[in-house]
Every structure is written in C-alpha cells, then in structure tokens.
Design a protein that fits this description.
The protein is α/β, with parallel strands linked by helices and about 200 residues long. It contains five helices and five strands; from the N terminus they run βββαβαβααα. α2 links the parallel β4 and β5.
C-alpha cells in the first residue's frame, strides 16, 4: 500500500509518501512541504496548495490519501486555514478517484509513539526510527505528514480487513455466501443471462 499523508496548513502543508504494509518494514518514498506566503491572497494560496497536491499525486500515484482531521483550536484563523487546505486536498484526491482517510492528531500520536499526548519532537523521533532515516524530517509539518501515512498503513489497513471480515460474517449469518463479482443477482427465481450478439 502506498499512502500520501497530508498535514494541512495554509502556510506550510506537509506532504509525505510511505509504502508498505502491516507487519513489514515501511519505506519512505518522498517528503516535503508545500509553502505559501502570508502576503498572498487566500484564494491564490489555495490554488498553490491544489497544484502542489496534484503534482504529488501525479508523481507518486498513492492508493490512499491520509489527511489530518481538523479539530477546534483557540486560534480561529489557524483552524480556518487548516480546514481550507484540508478541503482542497480532499477535492484533489476525490477528483482522481483516490480514497481519502481522516485521522485525528491524537490517533496519529498514539499510533506512532504509543501515547496520544506525545509532542511533535516525540512524533518526529518515532517517524525517524520507524522509517529508518538518518535524520528527523524537518520542518515538523513534514514529519507529521509521514506520521499520518504510517498511521493509515498500520490502522487503516487493519480496519479495512476487519470491515471486510465483518461483512462476510454478516452475509453468512443471513444464510448466504458473499456475492461474486459479475454474478447475476440471487433471487427466488433464477435469472437467465442476457443474450448478446453471437451467443446462443
């Protein structure tokens, strides 16, 4: 699984790509920060972020885009900028048909460090260790983006498998087997296949 993690922000939007799966070492593909200037009107800054995210998706072709879930902070302007950048990232991914996952900051901290109250330095240190890097990614937005990608591979992948297993259990409990792709609907009366050209 290849995941593009995005730590949304209007001034600095962290982006990082991690590849791997649960139970195996993860690999850093790339990491950076999309920057915009506070002296530029917000609409133009959002266009810069949109183009940056599009370029990353185009280059790295992620299977999933993992974005930090926006939560309330004391600084309203910071929340607004984060929410705007987050929305842009979701639109860019959705436009390309790429799944989007949202993870809370405490969920990410707990996943990579074992504590939902870990600070940025602790998260950065764990990201460095998990990905076997020579140095901690900087700025912190870059490390946070990688932490988001790591979290999704570890937790999102596991959750997807649980959901699939639960769906199979539910189908079995209802007295049927999981539907097979391409098979006709199961009803009381067998439904014949539609006749097409060349078939008797």
């Amino acid at each position: 699984m290849r995941v593009l993690g995005i730590d949304p922000g209007l001034t600095r939007c962290g982006v990082g790509v991690v590849e791997g799966q649960v139970g195996r070492p993860l690999t850093l593909v790339d990491v950076n920060v999309i920057r915009t200037s506070a002296g530029v009107p917000v609409p133009e800054r959002l266009v810069t972020i949109e183009r940056g995210v599009e370029a990353w998706i185009e280059e790295h072709r992620p299977d999933v885009v993992a974005i930090e879930r926006v939560f309330a902070r004391s600084d309203v302007s910071t929340v607004m900028g984060t929410a705007q950048a987050s929305g842009i990232a979701m639109v860019v991914a959705a436009r390309r048909g790429i799944a989007v996952a949202l993870h809370t900051p405490s969920e990410v901290k707990a996943a990579v460090s074992g504590s939902g109250r870990a600070d940025k330095a602790q998260v950065g240190a764990m990201v460095t260790r998990i990905l076997r890097l020579d140095a901690m990614p900087k700025p912190a937005d870059a490390a946070d983006a990688l932490a988001l990608a790591i979290t999704h591979i570890w937790r999102g992948g596991a959750q997807q498998r649980l959901d699939t297993a639960n769906a199979r259990v539910a189908v079995a409990a209802a007295g049927g087997a999981p539907p097979v792709a391409g098979a006709p609907p199961r009803t009381g009366t067998p439904r014949p296949w539609p006749r097409t050209g060349g078939r008797a």
